[in-house]
Specification:
It contains four helices and eleven strands, in the order αβαβααβββββββββ. With 222 residues, it is of the alpha+beta class. The longest helix has 21 residues.
């Protein structure tokens, strides 16, 4: 009975592990390395043949895969539900940025936590909203990338307004109280920021960390 129970548990664990791996895009899954078998490695001391080493994953692969799986699980509730994101504190901070999306920021989130992106980047089409990328911002270029092989973009200093519009401005004191073009009230100002996009909700041939995505061009009209 104990043996059957353990076998059953092992089967369940394998199913759960496979399900988590499916949450990660193919290009983010770890590369599996199959070490040479005994015919290549030769015989072990004493004339016996050495058993082949177990299959292992590359060092960087599983770490990134695990982090991306965590991010997807944490943000799945927002994938097609902008209303949920707003209820949780995300506020619009840009209009549709060409080949990116419409950015929603949660001002209550500081620093880098893989399960708490500061910004959600949505693609809008008709009445539907699709989460495309997660984004984090930094006051300067991180000395150590928070994710393996991460690359970064830059967003200039700007005055932001309640309707999501913004006006580049290096000086917070010169921000207009209302946007001259839209009449929307001033919301906040920020200095130049280093940005890190992570495209885990929409495929991006330009790369996981690319600031822009050619596949979202059809949504550029907002």
């Amino acid at each position: 009975m104990r043996t059957k129970y353990m076998v059953r548990l092992g089967g369940i664990a394998a199913v759960v592990a496979a399900a988590l791996l499916l949450l990660v895009p193919a290009w983010a899954q770890p590369k599996v390395v199959d070490p040479p078998g005994p015919a290549v490695a030769g015989a072990a001391p004493g004339g016996t043949t050495a058993a082949p080493a177990p299959m292992t994953a590359t060092v960087a692969g599983p770490t990134l895969t695990h982090q991306l799986a965590q991010a997807r699980l944490a943000t799945a509730k927002y994938a097609t539900n902008l209303a949920r994101a707003k209820a949780d504190g995300y506020q619009v901070i840009t209009p549709m940025m060409p080949d990116m999306g419409i950015h929603y920021m949660n001002p209550g989130i500081q620093g880098f936590t893989i399960t708490k992106p500061q910004i959600l980047v949505y693609e809008h089409h008709g009445n539907t909203w699709q989460l495309g990328a997660l984004e984090w911002v930094f006051p300067s270029m991180p000395k150590t990338p928070p994710l393996p092989n991460a690359t970064f973009g830059f967003f200039p200093a700007a005055c932001h307004y309640k309707d999501g519009t913004f006006i580049p401005d290096q000086n917070s004191k010169t921000c207009s109280k209302t946007n001259p073009k839209t009449g929307s009230k001033f919301s906040f100002w920020h200095p130049g920021l280093t940005t890190m996009h992570v495209w885990i909700w929409y495929p991006n041939p330009a790369g996981l960390y690319s600031s822009t995505n050619p596949l979202v061009a059809p949504f550029n009209g907002g």
